[in-house]
Each structure stands twice: as C-alpha cells, then as structure tokens.
Design goal:
It comes from Streptomyces montanus. Keywords: ATP-binding, Membrane, Nucleotide-binding, Transmembrane, Transmembrane helix. This is ABC transporter ATP-binding protein. It is a multi-pass membrane protein. GO terms for molecular function: ATP binding; ATP hydrolysis activity; ATPase-coupled lipid transmembrane transporter activity. A six-stranded mixed beta sheet has the order 6-7-8-3-9-10, sandwiched between helices. Strands 2-1-4-5 form a four-stranded antiparallel beta sheet, with helices on one face. It is built from 21 helices and ten strands. It folds into two domains: 341 residues, Up-down Bundle (ABC transporter transmembrane region fold), CATH 1.20.1560; 250 residues, P-loop containing nucleotide triphosphate hydrolases (Rossmann fold). By secondary structure, the chain is α/β, with parallel strands linked by helices. α8 packs across α10 and α15 crosses α17. The two termini are 17 Å apart. The protein is elongated. It binds adenosine-5'-triphosphate (ATP).
Amino acid sequence: MTETADRLHDESGEADDVAAAPAAEEELAFDHPGGDSLELADLLTGRTMARRLPSLIRRTFSLAWQVDRTAVGVLLACQIVSGISGALGLFATTEALSVLIETAHDTSRLPAAIPAVALLAGTAGLRALLGIAIQALSNRLSPRICREAEYKMLEAATNSEQAAYDHPGFNDRYDAAERGVDVSRDMIGQSQNYISSLATLIAAAVVLASLYPLLLPLLLMAAVPQAIAAIRGERVTYLAVVATHKDRRVMTMLRWHLIAKDQSDQVRTDTLAPYLLSRYKASAERVEATSDTAAWDRAKIAVVGAAATGLASSAVWGAVFLLLGTGRISAAAAGTAVFALRSAATGLQGLVGYGRDLLRTGLYLDDWERFVTEAAGQRLDRGIITPQRPRHIALRKVSFRYPEADEDTLHEVDFEVRQGEIVAVVGENGSGKSTLMKLLSGLNLASSGVVTWDGVSVADLDPHAMWRQTSVVPQDFARWPMTARENITLGQPCAEGDVAVKRAARASGADDVIRTLRSGLGTLLAREWWGGVALSPGQWQRIAVARPAHRDAGLLVMDEPTSDLDARAEHRIFTGLRGMAGERAVVLVTHNLANTSVADRIVVMDKGRVVQEGAFHELVNQPGLMQELWRLQQDRAAYRAEGNDA
Ligand SMILES: Nc1ncnc2c1ncn2[C@@H]1O[C@H](COP(=O)(O)OP(=O)(O)OP(=O)(O)O)[C@@H](O)[C@H]1O
C-alpha cells in the first residue's frame, strides 16, 4: 500500500470512529433576550410601576428631545394648558349648575349663567383644539424617535467586536433590541396619553376635593382594584411572551430557511418542506397553547378586577348621594361631583391602561437600551493608535479560543508577513487557517500571545483605522445588492474614479464580466431586487477579488479567492498577485497547492499549530504534511489503486 493509500485508509478508520460515537440528539437552544427578562417581569408590580413610570416618561421625552426640541416643548405646553382648561371647565360646571338650579322656573335669571356656560364651552373647544395639536405633534415625533432608536442600535451593532456573533446570546439580544425599536414609536403617544389622563384625573380630584374633601380618598380607593387587575394581567402576558420565546425564535429561523433564495433549490430537490413545516407547526402549536392559557388567566383576573372596581365605585356614588341627602353638599355641587367622578374615572382608566402599555413598552425599550449602551457586552473597546501602512505583521505565541468553545483553535502560533511578501497558508479543513486570518486582520483578538502591526499590539490600535489598512476577501464574501462599481469600490471610490475601478477589474478578470453587463459598472447586481442582474458564483468571485485590487490597503488577506473560478480566471489572478503585492503584505489561504508556488513562503497548519514553513520546492520535497497533501492532490493513481474505479 502506498503512503497516500495508507492515509486514505486511516481516514476511513476515522469515519468508523464517528459512526461508533454515541448518538446524541442536540436541541436548538436560544438565550432569552437580555437574559434577565424574567427578573424584569418582577418589576410588573404596583409599587415598582409607580416608581418606574416617571422615569420611563422622562426617558421618552429625553429621546424625543434629541430628535425635535421644538415639538417636545410645544407638546408639553399644550398638555399643561389642556390640563388647566380641564379643571377650569369642571369649576365652570359647578357655577353653571348652581345658577341653573337656583333659577329653577325663573328664566329672567338665566343670563347670570352665561359667563359660566361661555367658560365651559370655551374650555371644551380649547381642549379639543389642543387635543388635535397634541396628536399632530405625537405623530410627528413618533417616527423620528423610532428612526433615532434604530440608528443607535445599528451603530452599536457595527461597533461591536466581530467575536460578538460567536456569543450565543448576541443575536437574541439584537432581536430584542429590534423589538425595542419597533415599540419605541409608541412611547411618545403612550406617554402623552398617560400625562393627559393624569391631568384629567388631577383636575377632577382638585374639583372633588374642593366640593367635599372626603370624596378624594374614596376616589383613590376605587382606583386600586382596577390598577391591580391591569398590572396582574400585564404580568401574565409578559410571562407568556418569555415562555414562548424559544419557539418563536425557532419559527423565525424556520421561516427564513423555508423562503431564503440560497437554499430554495435544496428545499425542493431534497423534499424538505414538509419536514420543516411540521417543525414550524409544532412550535406554533406550543406558542398557541401558552397564549391560550395566558388569555384565560387574564380573563379571570379581569373578572375579579371588574367586580372589585364595581363595588368600590358603588361606594363612591353612595357617598355622593349620602352627602347630598344629609345636606352636606348642594344639589349643584352634587351635579358637579357627578361630572368630576365621570371625568376622574376616564382619567383613571387611561392612567392604568396607558401606564400598563408604557410599562410593557419600557420593558422592551430596556432591551434596546442595554444593547445600545454595551452592544451586549461586546462594544469595540480597543486602543486609539492610528496605524500606518504596515511593514511587518507578526503573531507571537498566539493562542485563540472561540467564545463558549471547550478548547483552543490556535495553539501558540508564531507567524509573520512583511510588506511586499506573499505568504500562503495551507492545511486540512478545520486546521485553523481562517481563524488565523481573522487574527491577522484584527477581526478577533488573541486569547493569549500578541498580534502586532509594526511592533504595536493590535489591541492598542484604533480598529477602524486599522481596517482602513486591511483588505480581506473571505471564503464567503459579500454580494452587496448594489451596482458593479459599488461592489468593487465598496462605496469608497478613490480620486482616479472609474479608471482605478477598471484597473482593479482587469486584475481579477471582472472586466470580462462587466463588459457583458447592460449598464457596465452601473449595473445593479441584485437579482432579488426589481431590475437587478444575477451573476454566476464565479463571476461574483471575480468582482470580489477586484475589491482588494482597488483598495489601497497595506494588508491583503485572501481566503480561497479562486475556489469558483475557471482555469483562465484563476491563472490571471495568480499571475497578477505579485503586482498586487507591491506595497502590500499578502496572505493567501488555498487548498489548491499548485497556487502556492507564487508565494515567497508557505506556512502549513495542522490542528491549530504551524507544523511546517518554507518555500514551495523545499516543502514538497521533504517529508511532512505539505508533501502528503501535495501528493494526494497530484496522485489520483493512489485512489485507483484502492479499487475505486472498479
Ligand atoms: N465561530 C466559531 N465558533 C467556534 N468555533 C469555530 C468558529 N469558527 C471556526 N471554529 C472552529 O475552529 C476550527 C478551525 O476553523 P477554521 O475555519 O479556522 O478552519 P480552516 O482551516 O479555515 O478550515 P477550512 O479549510 O475548512 O476553511 C474548526 O474546528 C471550527 O469548528
């Protein structure tokens, strides 16, 4: 058996080991957004609500203040005037009623009621106008607040460490923050409705207290059961949302897999749709079951709340009649008390309802705020040194472990690349090549050891300035839904304009692609958008490889840059690579070992370690992993020797 055949045999042995491994069925698990939302549910109590609501309203108005100060100022002024006119209206009611009652059948005294009736009509009209103005201002502020919240969230996401995406909770927290953005548009409306209700209640309370002070505590007593029922109900709903979070996430994920274009072919040819749909249905049924239980619990709470509120209200009305019957208040005052009590009930209802809405929105907004302030604990927080075009990039005894991983992916790796040099990195799948690229380009930071650019630790560099000196073509490069020009310049054209774009396109073979496009560089490369053009994977790769040729960066990292290319395009790129190196340090990852002959040096990786280093001819002529892989790639005869062509 040849050495190559030995290895093939070993590999089949490894496959047997895998088959013999105990079968363990793992389940998808998601972190709950924020992780501590169950604790937040504990905030849904009357006391904490009373404490929290003012701060929520303050937060809403401070967010609104950031987007439109004038509108916030006018809105608050309208609220105050509306509250005052509400109280004036109620006082005018007493006045008008007492005149009307006193005049009884003597119509000659009716004109005495005119000032009070005029005040009543005036305040009602003013309140109606102010209501319209308040609504218009809220409508103006809501979308602006939402946009501001969204902008802050997106900024926080792009300012987080790349490693954030490897933390299991990051995406969930982002989702939760997104929900916070969605509800942020409701905050101003809810806050202003809450304030309006409060103003109505205060106005009614002032009037009631002036009529007969005892009516005030009675009124407050009537409010308690209604408030408790609303808070309890809201808590039940919120807990149901928490309990169904995992299933709702699974449903979102399945929805995406069912309709995403990239795998739509496999969903069909693998007849996978029924299986995915059955999993979707199972999750949906669990969500419905939990929601049904919550709805039933809420209904029970509402019935008890309504009964208690009814009893308390009867007590208040009874008190009014008692006061009237015992002559403690006049008939006019009793009439006004009726109006004031109705007004108070409306205010109270609003206070509880909008307060509850505001609290719920506040819980989601907390998720948003946590994400914005700390990007789920992953905010980019590195040094401020601005690097120049790097002349020497080095890794010294670098180990790296992915978040939540059980062991290191890289083990004490030493590596360097200099300006003008091309270094190829090779190794088997999973040996750590892409991970090494992420450390070189500062996307990830070393767990131990140090990565330096011209002697300065990458952790001390300003990351954005560093990435302006970096050009990375990853294995899975982005296909931006933009024009061919933007896909090459990445929205950062240089002074030479299209001349530089065309030069870069020539270097990668993208010029042949662009020539066939109906609007040349201006063609929209996005089939999924109306009017866009679809490219083949290889054509896309030519566009992607033109990016580093266009970008004036000091470090060029290419991870399998020609995997989808035909022989002619691949040849063009590798023969042009030396020209691209020029003033750049180039690191190239490839499985096609023939391509490594263009490199000045080859670094061979195995299980996260550098196991060999040297020039192409040295490595293929000395025993070791490189020679082994090279022979496997060259020697298809070994495969036939195993009888596979039978
Ligand atoms: N985001 C991640 N979180 C946890 N582990 C990861 C992550 N990315 C990669 N790994 C692990 O790190 C190891 C090395 O992966 P890496 O992508 O660097 O290998 P590679 O040599 O580039 O492989 P290939 O040749 O297949 O591209 C693998 O075992 C992989 O499971």
